[in-house]
Amino acid sequence: MAEDLKIQQKIYDMMKYAYPITAQFPKSEKFTLVADIKKQMDILMERCIEAKKKYYKKTTLQEMDVANEKLMVYIRLSCDLHYISVHTYGVWSDKLVEIGKMIGGWLKAVNGQKSSS
After folding, report:
1. pLDDT in tens, 58-105
2. 16 lies in some domain
3. CATH number, domain at 82?
4. CA 31, CA 75: separation in Å to the nearest integer?
5. What's the confidence (pLDDT) of residue 72?
6. For 87-93, which contacts have Cβ atoms below 8 Å and span 24 or more sequence positions?
7. Does any domain span residue 1?
8. Where does residue 37 rank: exposed (0-12), middle (13-18), buried (19+ CB within 10 A)?
């Protein structure tokens, strides 16, 4: 697994952190907010794998960025609704901010490659 991107490992670690937390949500949210959170995490991982394998990455990276932003909103909503603690929100959002910075750096690298060609 040494060839895996660092960002893929960060996303994996974030998902590993998040799944036990979402299991604690109220039953009424299992098929709504929890499903939305898990869907965005899955999309984030899927787009990461796709970007790693594709020659043209820009659109896929932009979709990753959108999924990361949506996930941030869902996490903030979870905190505002008191489904997660402020501490949990802080840890989780820090992970997402770090992933977002990595996506931004990757996008800059991809855009830089195209302008130098």
Report:
1. 999 999 999 999 999 999 999 999 999 999 999 999 999 999 999 999
2. yes
3. 1.20.1440
4. 16
5. 98
6. 88/21, 91/17, 92/14, 92/17, 92/18, 92/21
7. no
8. buried
Cα 106 from Cα 79, distance rounded (Å): 29
**Are the C-beta atoms of residues 14 and 100 closer than 8 Å to each other?**
no
Residue 76: both structure tokens together: 């903030």
Supply 48's token pair. 């990461």
Question: Which pLDDT does position 113 carry in this prediction?
Answer: 72
DSSP 5: -
The predicted model scores a pTM of 0.89
Domain boundaries, position 96: 8-20+29-116
